[in-house]
Amino acid sequence: MNAPTISRILGLLFLVAGIAGFIPWIAPAAPFDAPVVTWDTAYRLIGGIFPVNIAHDALHILFGLIGLLAAVRFSSAVAYARVVTWVYLVLIVLGLIPITSTLFGVAPIYGWDVALHAVVLLVALYAGYGRGSQEEVEPATLAP
């Protein structure tokens, strides 16, 4: 898989995740004992385990749209994957620290979100810095 394909897949998955956060039967309301977020609009748990709120969903939708647009050109897909790699590395670190696991009350990034962010990071790392970031060149045909 190359960077544009991964960018397209990540973009689509981000869009689905962003929209899923607004659907009550996919994402029930967060329990009363969940960590406090000041932006509690649409504070839900996708699949009952991944905490999201309106800010988190908006970022997923934004990353999804940018990923789909970036997939048009190889260089922009690689750049997108590199940005996702670094953003998700920061989100993983912040999600592991109790005082920053809600991005200072803005968006929940704790619990299973950390593991999911690690998977996204590894995929983006492959597309941005690994084998997926190398454009395949057609071998030159030999003239008879």
Number of strands: 2
Task: State the distance separating the first and last CA atoms.
Answer: 33 Å
Mean pLDDT: 91
Question: What proportion of the residues form beta strands (DSSP E)?
Answer: under 5%
Widest β-sheet, arrangement of strands? 1-2
Largest sheet: 2 strands, antiparallel
Number of helices: 4
What assembly state would you assign to the polypeptide chains in this entry? single chain
Q: Share of helix among residues?
A: 40-55%
Helix vs. strand class: mainly alpha
Can you walk through the features of this model?
The protein is mainly alpha-helical and 144 residues long. It has one domain. 53% of the residues lie in helices and 4% in strands. It is built from 4 helices and 2 strands. It has helices at residues 3-20, 54-70, 74-96, 112-129; strands at residues 44-46, 50-52. The chain has a two-stranded antiparallel sheet. Helix 2 (54-70) packs antiparallel against helix 3 (74-96). The radius of gyration is 17 Å and the shape is elongated. The mean pLDDT is 91.
Compact summary:
This protein has 144 residues and is mainly α. Helices cover 53% and strands 4% of the residues.
Question: Which structural traits does this protein have?
Answer:
4% strand, 4 helices, two-stranded antiparallel sheet, mainly alpha, 53% helix, 144 residues
SSE layout:
Blueprint: H1 3-20, E1 44-46, E2 50-52, H2 54-70, H3 74-96, H4 112-129
Antiparallel strand pairs: 1-2
Helix pairs in contact: 1-2, 1-3, 1-4, 2-3, 3-4
